[in-house]
Amino acid sequence: MISKTYFSGFCLENEEELFSEYIIKNDFTVSGFSYGAIKAFEEVLSSKQRVDKLQLFSPAFFQEQDEKFKRMQLMFFKKDANAYCANFLENIAYPSNIDCSKYFVQGNYEQLDELINYEWSEDKLEQLERKGTKIEVFLGADDKICDSLKAKDFFAKYASVYYIKNVGHILNK
User: Fold this and answer.
1) DSSP structure class, residue 15
2) pLDDT value of position 55
3) InterPro entries, alphabetically (predicted)?
4) Does 51 fall in a domain?
5) CA distance 46 to 49
6) What is the residue-wise DSSP string for 103-154?
7) Residue 158: inside a domain, yes or no?
8) Element housing 158 (H / E)
9) How confident is the model at residue 93 (pLDDT cuts 50, 70, 90)?
């Protein structure tokens, strides 16, 4: 059994409850939100333990963004991390009125750099398929963080993709 079954998003902790209507809790399911989806994916990929299902909630998907966008995100964070994080919390909650500040924990530049520049690999997704791990991807149609339509198109070949109308990054109304 993998020691950790849920991986938190950038600048967040204990937000797992936001996904309670979707999350499967058992010894053979691993899940993660946004940046945590990257961490969960890499953990399952490298694990020798049995994992039947990997649930990716609003996976951080920026590989379709140009280098200028990525540099600007990192520059804004470096210039004023507090303002960047306040804006980030507002954007992940949209269009809901959920206060995500109760889950906030200060992230760092290295984490943001990793998530902004992470490349989801089709080869790695195929590796997980060969291991017998089923992948579920949950995306909000009104996501202000990632381009959920491009993410949907990318993951559709390797996962069951749930594209949910009228919700954003945290998948809540």
Assistant:
1) G
2) 98
3) AB_hydrolase_fold
4) yes
5) 9
6) GB----HHHHHHHHH----HHHHHHHHHHT-EEEEEEETT-SSS-HHHHHHH
7) yes
8) none
9) very high
Q: In angstroms, rounded to a whole number, what is the distance separating the alpha carbons of residues 28 and 44?
A: 10
Cα distance between residue 50 and residue 52, in whole Å: 6
CA distance 13 to 3: 17
Question: Could you tell me if residue 100 is inside a domain?
Answer: yes
- Distance of alpha carbon 9 from alpha carbon 95, whole angstroms: 18
Q: What's the whole-number mean pLDDT along residues 154-171?
A: 97
Helix H or strand E encompassing 29:
strand 29-33
- Please give the structure tokens belonging to residue 81: 């991390």
Could you give phi then psi for residue 86, rounded to 5 degrees?
A: -60, -45
How many domains is the chain built from?
1
Give the range of the structural domain holding residue 32, as residue numbers without chain letter: 6-164
The domain spanning residue 21 has which CATH number?
3.40.50.1820
Task: Please write the tens of the pLDDT for every residue from 96-128.
Answer: 999 999 999 999 999 999 999 999 999 999 999
In a domain? residue 99: yes
